[in-house]
């Protein structure tokens, strides 16, 4: 059984990437979040991604390119944020910004005891990054 077919416990996010930019999204997630791609299946056109399985910080993320010829078109869902709980927020934050993410909520020490901020990736998906405040 291929690594990308192993059963995954819990909930796994599955992103649809618009405008045939799935491969660029995989490259961004590798640069921004240290993702490891464990499997990729291309469409018959040899360009668009039917399925990609990524591992980020021990969790799974799946993605595919949009296929408007089958779905009638998609929109990035409003109100969805993917959260990364990490050991060193500043390192993850800076890496995401260097890879091309933009700040949605500045990174800061929060009232609930975490160091936390939010970014938007180049494909419109929102990510929160949080972890312990350094002493």
UniProtKB/TrEMBL annotation:
<dbReference type="Pfam" id="PF00903">
    <property type="entry name" value="Glyoxalase"/>
</dbReference>
<protein>
    <submittedName>
        <fullName>VOC family protein</fullName>
    </submittedName>
</protein>
<dbReference type="InterPro" id="IPR004360">
    <property type="entry name" value="Glyas_Fos-R_dOase_dom"/>
</dbReference>
<feature type="domain" description="VOC">
    <location>
        <begin position="11"/>
        <end position="132"/>
    </location>
</feature>
<dbReference type="InterPro" id="IPR029068">
    <property type="entry name" value="Glyas_Bleomycin-R_OHBP_Dase"/>
</dbReference>
<dbReference type="InterPro" id="IPR037523">
    <property type="entry name" value="VOC_core"/>
</dbReference>
């Amino acid at each position: 059984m291929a690594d990308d077919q192993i059963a995954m416990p819990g909930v796994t996010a599955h992103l649809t990437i618009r405008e045939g930019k799935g491969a660029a999204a995989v490259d961004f997630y590798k640069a921004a979040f240290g993702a490891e791609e464990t499997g990729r299946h291309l469409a018959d056109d040899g360009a668009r991604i039917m399925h990609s399985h990524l591992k980020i910080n021990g969790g799974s993320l799946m993605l595919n390119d949009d296929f408007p010829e089958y779905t009638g078109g998609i929109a990035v869902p409003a109100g969805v944020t993917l959260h990364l709980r990490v050991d060193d927020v500043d390192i993850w934050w800076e890496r995401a910004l260097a890879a091309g993410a933009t700040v949605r909520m500045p990174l800061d020490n929060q009232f609930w005891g975490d160091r936390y901020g939010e970014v938007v990736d180049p494909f419109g998906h929102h990510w929160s990054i949080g972890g312990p405040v350094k002493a």
